[in-house]
């Protein structure tokens, strides 16, 4: 949600938040955290449970937390809109949509802006729900590989560790293929006219600066994330640097 995005220093920089705005937004974040206290079980609550029981309890807590966040989201967003300037809030919503990727097509406001028919919305939902089920199956398979915990990995021979790494890499590739295929299918449900409206919703591309040893960033639905030096230009200080052909 946008409350979480606003805690990111790079997004704060992109929006050019004042110190006063940051303090006000921090108060909202604290209120949200306090409201969520008690939903997740404590370590003491979990220590005498078996693995399956712990997993079930955490799953239950996560579902409860998701419902609570969804219920509170409109009120929090209204408060944030009252703190940010109009252009700041618009840019924040653009970045949120970019980060949601193809899942943004499930949002009522996006469906309305693109004028998606009910049939289109149902088809897109079916595609993304099927993707999620496939992801869950992969996650279950991944958990099974580590059912013995990290101690099991330490006890493995080098050959066994190599086999496990290879299996994990294969699962990662399967996950990427599932995501890519679902994205292609969902975008295929849009008309050319609807696709043409999307850049206006997403705004100027925002890319996080890469953390050390990692990679992450935003993108538009149906668009691959681009690395530095590729088409689309680089960003410096949270802003896009145009290519030479644009200057």
Structure description:
- The chain has a two-stranded antiparallel sheet with strand order 1-2.
- By secondary structure, the protein is an all-alpha fold.
- The protein is globular, with a radius of gyration of 21 Å.
- It is 66% helix and 2% strand.
Provide a compact summary of the structure.
This protein is an all-alpha fold and 247 residues long. The protein has eleven helices and two strands.
Overall 3D shape: globular
What is the alpha-carbon Rg in Å? 21 Å
Main sheet characteristics:
2 strands, antiparallel
- Proportion of residues in extended strands: under 5%
Residues in helix, %: 55-70%
* First-last Cα distance: 36 Å
**Secondary-structure class:** mainly alpha
Number of strands: 2
How is the largest sheet built, in terms of strand order? 1-2
Mean residue pLDDT:
80
Low-confidence parts lasting 5 or more residues at pLDDT below 50? 213-247
| Order of SSEs | HHHHHHHHHHHEE
**Number of contiguous helices:** 11
